[in-house]
Amino acid sequence: MLSPLTLRLQAFTKLSVADREAIDRVSRSSVRQVAARQDIAREGDRPRAVNLILEGWACRYKSLPDGRRQIVSLFIPGDLCDANVLILKEMDHYIGAITAVRLAEIGREQLEALTLDHPRITQALWWDALVTTSVQREWTLNVGQRDAYERISHLLVEMFLRLRAVGLTTGNTCPFPLTQTDLADATGLTAVHVNRTLQDLRRDGLIALERRTLTIPDLPRLKNAAMFNDNYLHLDHEGAHLDAND
């Protein structure tokens, strides 16, 4: 069974057996558990490892002195929480667990060995970093220009496609542990506005959201409602010319 990180990187290019085994090794080293709603890393901390999400959902967020929070990205299994964080003197944001999380801490030497010894992994990580930046641009557009109905629809589609890419969907259904407060913090809306918008989406037959499970009966319809163009996720195997032969 392929690791979530392997599945994520193979959306860009096929990895060799040696590449996959190397990823599996770092995915099994220094594994730790973090309880739901606890911080994985805090602003001001000195980064000592790159966090790889193995199970559960987490988020990157910023907060104001009065407690207001903005979620600026979401992490699911296979996501690296800032592959380049080790160059920082201190963290400039928080990483928090949304659900209970199991993660691998990848140290500087491990990461350097992985990229030096496996150039195809390095190339896939470049793609991954570019996609992370692309997602941030889309989130800025979401908050700045889309209305509430479009914002929520867009986030639901994005997370469904990202989960599907790492094998965590079943048909048109996927886990969705975000609370309405989480959705509000990620979309710049109030929790009340999120509640009303979810009711509208249900009424229009675009989603079913129950017991932390999201069902999308008609994905093309929800994409249309969100004005969703999935080109920014770059999940169409763009690095096929670099594919391994084994």
From TrEMBL:
Q: Which GO terms describe its biological process?
A: regulation of DNA-templated transcription
Domain HTH crp-type: where?
146-220
- Single annotated GO MF: DNA binding
Q: Which UniProt keywords apply?
A: DNA-binding, Transcription, Transcription regulation
InterPro entries according to UniProt = cNMP-bd_dom, cNMP-bd_dom_sf, HTH_CRP, RmlC-like_jellyroll, WH-like_DNA-bd_sf, WH_DNA-bd_sf
Asked whether the UniProt record includes Transcription among its keywords, one would answer yes
Is Ion transport among the key words of this record?
Answer: no
What PROSITE patterns has UniProt attached to this entry? Answer: HTH_CRP_2 (PS51063)
Read off the Pfam families from this record: cNMP_binding (PF00027), HTH_Crp_2 (PF13545)
Q: This protein is called what?
A: Crp/Fnr family transcriptional regulator
- What organism does the record attribute this protein to? Sphingomonas parva
